[in-house]
Write a structure and sequence with these properties.
The complex is a heterodimer of chains A (527) and B (535). Chain A is α+β, with helices and mostly antiparallel strands. In chain A, 48% of the residues lie in helices and 18% in strands. With 535 residues, chain B is α+β, with helices and mostly antiparallel strands. In chain B, strands 11, 12, 14, 15, 16, 17 and 18 form a seven-stranded mixed beta sheet that branches. Classes of the chains: A alpha+beta (527), B alpha+beta (535). Strand 9 of chain A pairs parallel with strand 13 of chain B, so a sheet runs across the interface. Chain B: InterPro entries: Chap_CCT_epsi (IPR012718), Chaperone_TCP-1 (IPR017998), Chaperonin_TCP-1_CS (IPR002194), Cpn60/GroEL/TCP-1 (IPR002423), GroEL-like_apical_dom_sf (IPR027409), GROEL-like_equatorial_sf (IPR027413), TCP-1-like_intermed_sf (IPR027410), TCP-1_chaperonin (IPR053374).
């Protein structure tokens, strides 16, 4: 009597061809989903969340789209994962990596149906990926030495990144902003120092980069609205009722007078604290926690600007930019480092009042104020700008750049093709397939722009036959053109990450010959 | 069903609610069990060897695991059948004991079961088969001992160890950079190994992973990695020659464990209490400072005021460090874990040459490196990789490699891999079988045939003609009387496993054979399966 059931009831098992089929189809479905957002003329997607309010997101950022999907297919999950990692690591190319992995699997499927073993395909893909990377390395441009040229490289990269996003209308404006912001970072990749503030109203063109620091808070009533040569104390301390922290302490009194006395003592304590704070010789006090009316009044009396309830991030940033330390005790004013800035003033953006710190000690930080018609526009603008900032900050460290517009793919495809011709054995089919998958990216870009992709790619291929050619697809004019002249550049680091992680993901999915799905965990019935 | 009759011929019931149970008896029970065991082995069969395929497993919560590590696959498979669970246990015990060969042991057991089924059909009693297997396994283990070779290496020349680890890693998805990973694993093991006693405590090797970067960025840190950052954003990010105070008491006001109330009824009391509180914080920080600590690592949280005081007194601190990490830090830096501020003394401080904070990628991820520790026995392997699955799989692969290196240090006898050991055992067992009179002879021959199934699966997975290849290698072994010929999985062009540097540890192989035989014996001895029938 055969026992065919060794798993639990709802578990399923897929073997061999069927398993491979299931993962191919799942992965390709995901790739096709985001495919139409690729390139400067890519389309956007509307995502409606299932949560309360059914909030809507409009985006063409691959990582954002994939993150919001609820996917059941395990292979598809692998792709979602690589796009997330790409986002974390380099910030851009999240769509490209999924599309490339999808294409690699599509090619692999054809090879598998023509009876080539997946392991052979993997071996071929690996060789091809290595060769493609070499090809890119050979053609990189590095302008690290020449500051002016480097800046223009960065500008071009920023514009290339932004041109596929919602900001494409004002890409020069935003590219300038992004490059300026990144240059202020002076090589660090810590994007925290760049603060992005979103304020609905106005148009995208009204967005601006501010060299100082903007805090989205209000100044206490009756306090000066403008301070020059400010000395700032950044603090994280209780300014409401300074409780006794010793555990179990409580007030127990037996008469009204005593209550009054203790109240008085509390007030006195607060007064003391304020006095100590004022003893630092400051004229601006920023606290992370609430400031109650009483101390606020005391500050106002002393002519000190007090800002309450600046959140953690605000405080940390402020500490960073003004060079002050975040203080919680105030007993030795001589050793506490105060923050400095030239000018604090209240400014109006749209209808909101914000506090603006300018002329700060540390030049690293800056704020970008985004203006736009609606929250959706602003959210998408923030994502786009974030992508650009990520790419730029990575490029500052790894200054190698490449041309864009499908140029790197064609260069790689050419080299990989050469390799295929030289390789003996079944692997060469896989290598050839790799080059076909690479070409699929410019094809998709052209398709998305409504151009005749077959014609353009064929032209491109012919152009690339010449050594040292700079041809790529210029989507705006709809023709093949010189990418160097058009100023379409991409960061080498992004392209390399796309290539390597896509290959890795494809390999991972290819190696699978069996899918076992466990019985879903039973939920407690809450219905 | 089990029905018995009393002396008056009335039936009575032995099993409670017996009409709701299903029962299999005798040969049917054995057949059913064997089928279940075989089913499990069949799943793993295609994962064997350097060209083995992976399995994709979707867990009960929808999380995806991709692996070709036998123990992992079986563990995550969530099987329901009793016998299948036995097989899972089998692979797990191989994992605990040896750490490698978890797939091989299951495939071996499956093959033994398959052979047993054939013998059962011939009418041989299961106990006789079990006994035959037992005898055969003893022969095989002894034979392995005879052909085993000593494996020479020392601390300065660890190249042979690296080669072995590479063999282990070559069947994993990480084989792209097996060389560097193998080196990392060997260096890690050598760093913590006690070569005098031939012992390795793998607990001292911590394997950490973080998503992002390339597999090539994986590194070995002679020290500890803590996934935490400094408690105050403005504390120094790098400390040289750190003297570390390791605390398990919070920088917070004391919380006596007995229930109590402090009553405040006068202004004076209020004042004194306030003073005391401030003093308390001051004292805590001062104590740390007094003993000469330059870094505080604490298991608990800090009060805001305390945090600032620390910052103010230039005493960097890390909070919310987990208990395990704390212990590791204590071991590595030679410090003592101090539960109370009063007990801090300079001798209890740990020492590390360098402590630094490092940030990764575009998201704000920071890790704390503690390096050049006083007692450099603790090391950390820090894995980077494209995605979480990749990292998990790399972790498992590294674990396997570490185990192999450890086993070699414990006992440096080796046998050759690629099926060579199985083939020579098969020959030895087959020859030995002829000497045994009685029915066991058949069981012993069956055992020999089962041994062949491992190289057969290897050949199959590598895309070779299994029967042809196996018989070719077998005849070669007999002709030249050399037990080093195995299956050429990687298509190198030679069958000589010595040349290919493919070998396994002797204890690992012996364990595989013994464990597989034991489980099969256990399964064969079951002749009655009573289970609750469903519905």
């Amino acid at each position: 009597m055969p026992i065919d059931k060794i798993f639990k009831d709802d578990a399923s098992e897929e073997k061999g061809e069927r398993a491979r089929m299931a993962s191919f189809i799942g992965a390709m479905a995901v790739a096709d989903l985001v495919k139409s957002t690729l390139g400067p003329k890519g389309m956007d997607k509307i995502l409606q969340s299932t949560g309360r309010g059914h909030s809507v997101t409009v985006t063409n950022d691959g990582a954002t789209i994939l993150k919001s999907l609820h996917i059941d297919n395990p292979a598809a999950k692998v792709l979602v994962d690589i796009s997330k990692v790409q986002d974390d690591e380099v910030g851009d190319g999240t769509t490209s990596v999924v599309v490339l992995a999808g294409e690699l699997l599509r090619e692999a499927e054809k090879l598998v149906t023509s009876k080539i073993h997946p392991m052979t395909i993997i071996a071929g893909y690996r060789m091809a990926a290595e060769c493609a990377r070499e090809a890119l390395l050979k053609r990189v441009i590095d302008n690290k030495e020449n500051a002016e040229k480097f800046r223009s490289d960065l500008m071009k990269i920023a514009m290339t990144t932004l041109c596929s996003k919602i900001l494409s209308q004002d890409k020069e404006h935003f590219a300038e902003m992004a490059v300026d912001a990144v240059f202020r970072l002076k090589g660090s990749t810590n994007l925290e120092a760049i603060q992005i503030i979103k304020k609905p109203g106005g148009s995208l063109r009204d967005s601006f980069l501010d060299e100082g620091f903007i805090l989205d808070k209000k100044i206490g009533i009756g306090q000066p609205k403008r301070i020059e040569n400010a000395k700032i104390l950044v603090a994280n301390t209780a300014m409401d009722t300074d409780k006794v922290k010793i555990y179990g302490a409580r007030v127990r009194v037996d008469s009204m007078t005593k209550v009054a006395e203790i109240e008085g003592a509390e007030k006195e304590k607060m007064k003391d604290k304020v006095k100590k704070i004022l003893g630092h010789g400051i004229n601006c006090f920023v606290n992370r926690q609430l400031i109650y009316n009483f101390p606020e009044e005391l500050f106002a009396d002393a002519g000190v600007l007090a800002i309450e309830h600046a959140d953690f991030e605000g405080i940390e940033r402020l500490g960073l930019v003004t060079g002050g330390e975040i203080a919680s005790t105030f007993d030795n004013p001589e050793s506490v480092k105060l923050g400095h800035c030239k000018l604090i003033e209240e400014i109006m953006i749209g209808e909101d009042k914000l506090i603006h710190f300018s002329g700060v000690a540390m030049g690293q930080a800056c704020s970008i104020v985004l203006r736009g018609a609606s929250h959706h526009v602003l959210d998408e603008a923030e994502r786009s700008l974030h992508d650009a900032l990520c790419v730029l900050s990575q490029t500052v460290n790894d200054s190698r750049v490449l041309l864009g517009g499908g140029w790197p793919e064609m260069v790689m495809a050419k080299e990989v093709d050469e390799l295929a011709r030289k390789t003996a054995g079944k692997k060469s089919h896989a290598i050839e397939a790799f080059s076909r998958a690479l070409v699929a990216i410019p094809t998709t870009i052209a398709d998305n722009a409504g151009l005749d992709s077959a014609e353009l790619v064929a032209q491109l291929r012919a152009e690339h036959h010449n050594e040292g050619c700079n041809a790529g697809i210029d989507v705006i004019s709809g023709a093949v053109g010189d990418m160097e002249e058009r100023g379409i550049y991409e960061a080498f680091k992004v392209k390399q990450a796309v290539l390597l992680s896509a290959t890795e993901a494809a390999e991972m999915i290819l190696r699978v010959d069996e899918i076992i799905t466990c019985a879903p965990r039973r939920r407690e019935d809450r219905m | 069903m089990a029905l018995a009759f009393d002396e008056f011929g009335r039936p009575f019931i032995i099993l409670r609610e017996q009409d709701q149970k299903t029962r299999l008896r005798g040969i049917d029970a054995q057949k059913a069990n064997i089928a279940a065991g075989k089913a499990v082995a069949r799943i793993l069969r295609s994962s064997l060897g350097p060209k083995g395929m992976d399995k994709m497993l979707q867990g009960p919560d929808g999380d995806v695991t991709i692996s070709n590590d036998g123990a992992t696959i079986l563990e995550q498979m969530d099987v329901d059948n009793q016998i299948a669970k036995l097989m899972v246990e089998l692979s797990r015990s191989q994992d605990y004991e040896i750490g490698d060969g978890t797939t091989g042991v299951v495939v071996m057991a499956g093959a033994l079961l398959e052979q047993a089924e054939r013998q059962l059909d011939r009418g041989i009693h299961p106990i006789r088969i079990a006994e035959g297997y037992e005898t055969a396994s003893r022969v095989a283990v002894e034979h392995l001992e005879r052909i085993a070779q000593k494996f020479e290496f020392d601390v300065n020349n660890y190249e042979p160890l690296v080669q072995t680890c590479m063999t282990t890693l070559s069947s994993k998805i990480v084989n792209r950079c097996k060389r560097s990973l193998a080196e990392i694993a060997v260096k890690a093991v050598l760093a913590v190994a006690d070569l005098e006693r031939r012992d390795v405590n793998l607990d001292l090797i911590k394997v950490e992973g973080k998503v992002g970067g390339k597999l090539e960025d994986t590194e070995l840190i002679y020290g500890i990695l803590v996934d935490k950052d400094m408690s105050h954003p403005q504390m120094p990010k790098q400390i040289e020659d750190a003297h570390i105070a390791i605390l398990t008491c919070p920088f917070e006001p004391p919380k006596p464990k007995t229930k109590h109330k402090v009553d405040i009824d006068t202004v004076e009391k209020f004042e004194t209490l306030r003073k005391q509180e401030q003093q308390y914080f001051d004292e805590m920080v001062q104590k740390c400072k007094d003993v000469g600590a330059t870094l505080v690592i604490c298991q608990w949280g800090f009060d805001d005021e305390a945090n600032h005081l620390l910052m103010h007194r230039n005493l960097p601190a890390v909070r919310w460090v987990g208990g395990v990490e704390l212990e590791l830090i204590a071991i590595a830096t030679g410090g003592r874990i101090v539960p109370r501020f009063q007990e801090l003394t300079p001798e209890k401080l740990g020492k590390a040459g360098m402590v630094r904070e490092k940030s990764f990628g575009t998201t704000k991820e920071r890790m704390l490196y503690i390096e050049h520790c006083a007692n450099s026995k603790a090391v950390t392997i820090f894995i980077r990789g494209g995605n979480k699955m990749m990292i998990e799989e790399t972790k498992r692969s590294i674990h396997d490699a570490l185990c192999v290196a450890r086993n070699l240090i414990r006992n440096n006898s080796i046998v050759y891999g690629g099926g060579a050991a199985e083939i020579t055992c098969s020959l030895a067992v087959d020859a030995a079988g002829d000497k045994y009179p009685g029915v066991e002879q058949y069981a012993i021959r069956a055992f020999a045939e089962a041994l062949d199934s491992v190289p057969m699966a290897l050949a199959e997975n590598s895309g070779l003609q299994p029967i042809e290849t196996l018989s070719a290698v077998k005849s070669q072994q007999i002709k030249e009387n050399i037990p080093f010929y195995g299956i050429d999985c990687n298509d190198v062009g030679t069958n000589d496993m010595r040349e290919q540097n493919v070998f396994e540890t002797l204890i690992g192989k012996q364990q595989q054979i013994l464990l597989a035989t034991q489980v099969v014996k256990m399964i064969l001895k079951i002749d009655d399966v009573i289970s609750n029938s469903e519905y």
